[in-house]
Amino acid sequence: MNKYRLKISGRNPNSFLKHLISKKIKLYNITDKDKAIFITVTLEDYQKIKKMKTSYKMEVVNRFGLLKLKYLLRKYQYLLIFFCLALFLIIVLSHTIFYVEVVHPKKEIRDLIKKDLKELGISKFKFKKTYQEKESIRNKILTKEKDKIEWLEIDSVGTKYIVNVEERLINDKPEDEYPRDVIAKKDAMILSIEAEEGEVIKKKYDYIRKGETIISGTIKNKEKEVSKVKAQGRVYGEVWYTITVELPRKYHEENRTGKKSKALTINFLNHQYSFPFNEKNKTYQSDKIILLESKLLPLNLSLENKYEVKIIDKKYNLENSLNDALSLATNRLTLKLPSNSSILDKKVLKKSLKDSKINIEVFFKVKEDITDYVRISEELKEETEGE
User: How does strand 149-157 pair with strand 160-167?
Assistant: First the structure.
């Protein structure tokens, strides 16, 4: 209840107190201290007391209810305005992109991705995107640049976006008859070697670095090089990947199921009536065509194309997010792997919570074709032929 706590002081405050009682002013919590009387009165009675002509000094020492709230708001209004502005500024700045970094050694690839990102709304001084918007932008770029980009990942680090890109390498050069070695395309552990020509110099379960020779095109006899050939073969290895997945604490997704129908809808006041009626426990999206609308009454008649929608709402934490994170990381990795690859094992390395988002790092072991070739010099062959 709205009340005032008053301090009444003067020559004889008890006399003024008797006067208030005679005026049927309701008094609460009457105390006497330091030759003054303290009373509590309602807002209405306080207005009456203010209109009385008296020589006694009346001072408001406290307020209760909404009166106190209004008083505090008035007293600290500038501080509150400053605080609200500062809070608003912090929120805006924390949701603004200040830097976009595209990680790739080729400038033309970096410029291409930056251009695509800008067209889709990711650039400096733009607001950060939601998880769903970011995934949509990523998929659009991969589709648009499918001939140039093998894989792309957009990571949010504070007010910065780091975009990792892997270029699609198309080997359209015709095979030649020059001597060559079979080398490793990636760091890996060898799982199998299928050699057709050349000398195998590595064995199963060897750990190799990118560029190391596995099948040599240099043929030796008792440590002496006697010829150079075009090494042929296929090598499969265990390759390792780490994929970081970012999930929102609250996830919302709406997908059309493919089912659709037509309905006649009447809107009257704040009520809507559809024929046929909507099925319970189902959600719809619709496109409306207004057939009839009244200018005098809040009434209109429309024809709707209704699309059934499946809604997915999830609340993630560090425990229940693991299965979805593993599935999402697996899908992302599968998109960048060659068709003849297979995932051997996967496990979560690290999980953390930051800025209302869950970051999960997943480690994969993949069986992959790691065969690559490098041309070798024919000098020895030419010298041998000349002897």
Answer: antiparallel
Per residue in 333-368, pLDDT (tens digit) is 988 888 889 999 999 988 888 777 888 899 999 999
In whole angstroms, give the CA distance from residue 95 to residue 99.
Answer: 12
Instruction: Give the residues of the chain that fall short of pLDDT 50.
Output: 172-173, 380-387
Q: Is 132 among the domain residues?
A: yes
Q: Phi and psi of 56, rounded to 5°?
A: -75, 145
Distance CA(216)–CA(195), nearest Å, equals 10
Kindly state whether residues 20 and 47 are assigned to the same domain.
Answer: yes
Residue 306 lies in a domain: yes
In a domain, 216, yes or no: yes
Count of domains observed in the chain: 4
Q: CB-based contacts of 249: which residues, under 8 Å, 6+ apart? A: 315, 316, 317, 356, 357, 358
190 DSSP β-pair partners? 237
CATH code, domain with 105: 3.10.20
Q: Is residue 131 part of a domain?
A: yes
Q: What angle do CA 280, 284, 286 make, to 5 degrees?
A: 140
Q: Which CATH number is 26's domain given? A: 3.30.70.860
Place of tokens 């006497």: 32
**211-253 residue pLDDT tens:** 999 999 888 887 788 888 999 999 999 999 999 888 887 777 6
Same domain, 66 and 7: yes
Q: Give pLDDT, residue 125.
A: 85
Residue 134 structural domain: 99-167
* Backbone dihedral angles phi then psi of residue 207, each to the nearest 5 degrees: -90, 130
212, 272 Cβ separation under 8 angstroms:
no
